[in-house]
Amino acid sequence: MRSHDDRQKERRELNPQEMLETIFETIASISKEKEIDRILMLMADLGRELICADRCTIWLLSDDKATLWTKVAHGISAITIPSDSGVVGHAIADNAPIIINDAYADERFNPSVDLQTGYVTRSIIALPIYGGEGEIIGVYQAINKMTDEAVFSDDDLKRLKLAAIYSGATLETAITNKEIEDTQKDVIFTMGEAGEMRSKETGNHVKRVAEYSYILALSCGLSKADAELLRMASPMHDIGKIAIPDAILKKPAKLDEAEFEIMKTHAETGYQILKNSHRRILKAAAIVAYEHHEKYNGRGYPQGLRGEDIHIFGRITALADVFDALGSDRVYKKAWELEKILALFKEEKGAHFDPALVDAFFRALDDLLDIRNRFVDGAH
Ligand code: C2E
Ligand code: SIN
Ligand code: SIN
Ligand code: FE
Ligand code: FE
């Protein structure tokens, strides 16, 4: 039974010329994309256009292969389903495409997604998507043929296969890149925490400095991408402390001059550890480690850089780091009251800190304090 509503949405098949144009145009956009979500959306649009389906969903197989998930699909938001259920699950188990033109009469169909979304599925195509080594990475699913005949054909399957083959490689690259980047983030974060742990500062210090840096970066006008990069890199600012002897690092009192000279080497040491990497995040981390104790007036260390000669990442992390250090207990000092901290930032505007950044700091203060409350340290 087709409702009046459906008939209004009725569409005609693309002619071969239109089909080629649609494929070439979309594949060109897909191959330029790096964001998984965007690729999935473009693939869904392509599938829907090519075979006159009402909805199209690209399901991705989870790492452990137990579930399929999709973040973007026509008509649904984020959904996870077991990878052995429904038509999609059968396509994986059989390692073969499936066409069904009367879903509710087919026992392979699982109506639970319909029940969640209130949608009525009649016809379905499900087609495995393969990675470079022939392994299944997901499923291309189209629902409800919108032409007069209202049934999916083998021709539709062929077209969807074409779309899957041409977009599958881009999709796989994007997935792999995301995995690499996630791994890098983990490693960097863990190394940053290791550096902090020795100096008995709780792990939340690196988390807070990361978030403060991100907020300050956005507040002073850096792009979202640069702000994200700094958020990933700034947890490494003190990695060089791993080379500082405990007697100095954990001294519960003021350092004498000689001790402070040794302490100061942590900036250069951090830079030496990181500088040879060609990875984007580690390069940024090297800059941050090297320059987070430089001062705007040129009186910082290790290089005594001045003003804008200090990389913006270094200037931002300097502020984030001191804001956090002053607000936290250290082995050698108690946390300061907020008022005293804010007074210091006003006083050091143009001296220790970039004046534009101090302005950005005060503009973003509410958000910064939010982070401070969210990532409080364990009881001291
Ligand atoms: P940290 O404790 O995380 O401090 C980071 C930065 O915050 C310091 O860089 C400094 O700019 C600022 N800061 C922290 N506490 C105070 C404070 O009480 N007053 C003021 N005016 N600023 C403060 P700085 O000075 O280059 O020190 C680098 C690191 O050297 C410190 O990191 C800490 O690990 C160590 N350190 C510095 N002074 C002492 C000390 O007297 N005793 C011990 N045990 N360690 C110290
Ligand atoms: C199924 O694969 O059986 C259900 C999929 C859906 O309706 O989205
Ligand atoms: C910190 O633990 O963040 C402060 C140390 C430093 O910046 O040298
Ligand atoms: Fe430091
Ligand atoms: Fe720090």
Order of helices and strands: HHHEEEHEHEEHHHHHHHHHH
Question: Widest sheet: strand order?
Answer: 3-2-1-6-5-4
Could you please say which CATH topology of the largest domain applies here? Hypothetical protein af1432
Strand content: 5-15%
- What ions, cofactors and ligands are bound? ligand C2E, succinic acid, fe (iii) ion
Question: So what's the overall shape?
Answer: elongated
Number of helices, where a helix is a run of at least 4 consecutive DSSP H or I residues? 15
State the fourth-level CATH superfamily of the largest domain. Hypothetical protein af1432
Q: How many domains is the backbone divided into?
A: 2
Whole-number radius of gyration?
A: 28 Å
Q: Average pLDDT across residues?
A: 88
How many beta strands in the DSSP annotation? Answer: 6
Query: What summary fits the major beta sheet?
Result: 6 strands, antiparallel
- Named at the architecture level, the CATH assignment of the largest domain is Orthogonal Bundle
Word description of this protein:
The structure is a single chain. The chain is α+β, with helices and mostly antiparallel strands and 380 residues long. It folds into two domains: 173 residues, Beta-Lactamase; 176 residues, Hypothetical protein af1432 (Orthogonal Bundle), CATH 1.10.3210.10. It has a six-stranded antiparallel β-sheet, sandwiched between helices. α2 packs parallel to α6, α3 packs antiparallel against α6 and α7 runs antiparallel to α15. The termini are far apart. The model has no long low-confidence stretch (mean pLDDT 88).
